[in-house]
Queue: 3 jobs
Job 1
Amino acid sequence: MVSLIDCCGGATPLDNLKSNKTDESDDVVLECNYDKDLTLLYQMIEEQVWVTCYEFLTSEPQFGSAAKGEAPRDQAATWVSRYEENGKLRWSQLPLHAAIIFKAPFKVVEAMIKLYPKALKSRDDQEMLPLHLAFRYGASDSVLALILDGYPEAIGVKGHKGKLAHEFSASGPNPRRGEIIQEYIDQMTEGAFVYEKNKEYLEKKRAKSGNSQSSDLERLRSELEAERQKVLALEKEKTEMAYAGMTGEEKKEEDTVFANDMLEQARVSADNIPAVPVEETAELVEDKKTEDADKEETAQEGKEDAVEEVRDPAPEAPLELDTTKQFVAAPSPTTTPKKKKGFKIFGRKKKSQK
């Protein structure tokens, strides 16, 4: 198995196919020659050995075979082409195209799509997508649903001779399926046309109605505001006239009522100020009590320490004598010094009179 570029030197018989690249990726397009190096997967599809084919598709590829491009995923993505003796292309398709033509079971088709989902968007040499072939060869409902689920946009893609997918049912084993799809498409198209017309009509009507309603509402608002201003002016004038006709005592009473009303409004405004929650107030009071108790306990401990120090003073350090100094001996306790006669008066010595 080789790539198209390798075998043809840059020019390939599949250049006219729209399915060589199904997206903007740089994947190498693989091809094998049906008469020379046909892949194992395609052989199993032709021989319709579906159990073996399914086991191969779901098997783990060996490293050696994967390096040679023989892994299940590589074979599912390999174009199988057949040529005339002069080198002209006879046909070319992916294994998924062949599986649908040979009416492979649901599990086999599902395994192929999982390995190579891009096959759903790939056209064969006749501009046929897998969905076109599913309608043409009467695939089962489950296989048809699987293909539509993987690439729903294919229902609107034209294939060979500009036909849509469901139109190929007319030449297949289940022509009624195409008729049902066509009826459904017609109904959807007609419904969409009617919906668009109704939508356009309703939008115009809504816009017109909305503009008229908006203008009516604005006019009513203006009229109501004007009437409100008139009522306020009349009430003010009535109040001023009534106040002017009052006596001095009545005016004083009216002023008092007005002042009380203002005070009541102020009180209501003050009441609306959010109060501190009871829980927070109680917590603050408790903290204050604890703080005062701590201060009182500290002061009491200070007093007790002072009293204890007075009662039991600390012992004084022992007196150290200086032996270098000489002291005069004190008189003996038996020797009594003679007292001088006289007494002190005002700080002076005065002899006593006999």
Job 2
Amino acid sequence: MNEPLYRDVVVVGGGISGLTVAWHLKRAGMDVVLLESAASVGGCTQTQRRDGFLLEKGPFNVIVRDPAFAALLEDLGEEARVIQASPVAKKRYILHGGRLHAVPTNPLALLTTGLLSMGGRVRLLRGLVYSKPLGNHEETIAQAITRRLGRETAETIVSAAVSGIYAGDIDVLGWNACFPKIAEHDARATSPIGYALRTMLSRRFAKRGGDDSLVACTRDVGSSRGLKPAARDAQTKEDPEERKRRSKIGRANGRETSARKRKWRGLVSLDGGLGAITETLARRLGTDVWTRTNVMAVEREGDGFLVRIRRDDESGEGSSLRCRRLVLAVSATPAGRLLA
């Protein structure tokens, strides 16, 4: 076996996460190599071109909410040009009972949609007004929605929406893992209407640059518990300077996020498909991307790591890399195997 090569950082996994990490490290002056077992990088984010059509292997559009993701798209520039969704694409339909039904986009549409029977609509309405909060246990999306709004809503409406986002089964996907913010509210409040009202008040008040203590006061609107007297006292006794400081930080963060949102509103994709992101990152990393490279083992060595690899070339010979830092940008199963 040859003498191990040395790199500052070894990144294992050539999906969008691994490629982004490797690119940022390289720009920061690090000597980095990315290892990918497949013949091409991209992971779930790959685009195939066939007969003039684009076929996405994974996600086909995104909503640019995260400032870090917006910054990445700006860095990639014309190599990954963002395109807005057509207004026509806002109209979504679900095939149910042999007919196409428009996806409900407001409470009235939910209560009149042909996707639900009369019993399903009554159960939905009851759940919007009141339902039992979640206990201290994990639920699937199907279990959470059934508890809140009924099984019919879960199977006909939510299942279709989740399939479009995760391409997964609501009876398997975790509620907390997929929708953490909604699940956080769900665990302590009893009314989805209360949650919607609190969210609306929070956004409107934040846009005006007001004191975020009002936002805190609306936190438990619709909850059977509400704010306890001690909590209300704490709100009124808050130090004015501390309140001013938090309000200033909130407005600054809001301006940054709003600037990103104004540039790309709603659903977007890329000219050439979302695979353009991973393709561009791989192109910029150049020879620092090793495909067809299997990581066989990871060992601690002093203040760094020894990474044993096998490349699927003609020789099939194994080799190894030494590095100061190791990034595992892979799913739990292969990561667990390497760390065991």
Job 3
Amino acid sequence: MAATLRVAPSTLREVAAAQTDVSSYVSGMGTGTQLGTAAAGLTELESAAACQLAAELLDKTAAVVSKELSAHAERLTQAAERYTATDQSLAQRLRNIAE
């Protein structure tokens, strides 16, 4: 037996807002920058280059994650808007039939 699908546009909007917050947090973490700063203190060690590479990868990864979270949040918002618009349209049609 299949589960019943329930859609709550308000919940979709709440999740979208939470994902937007997480996206902002991830993009502002600055982990790569911090690691790059640490690498500057290791200039005489071979691990400095590894730290710098890791810093660049962390920054790129954070940017991708942030972008994907923002895109998904936008899709959730659009879905909520479509569900709401469809609900209102169908409700109006039913009212018109009832009149």
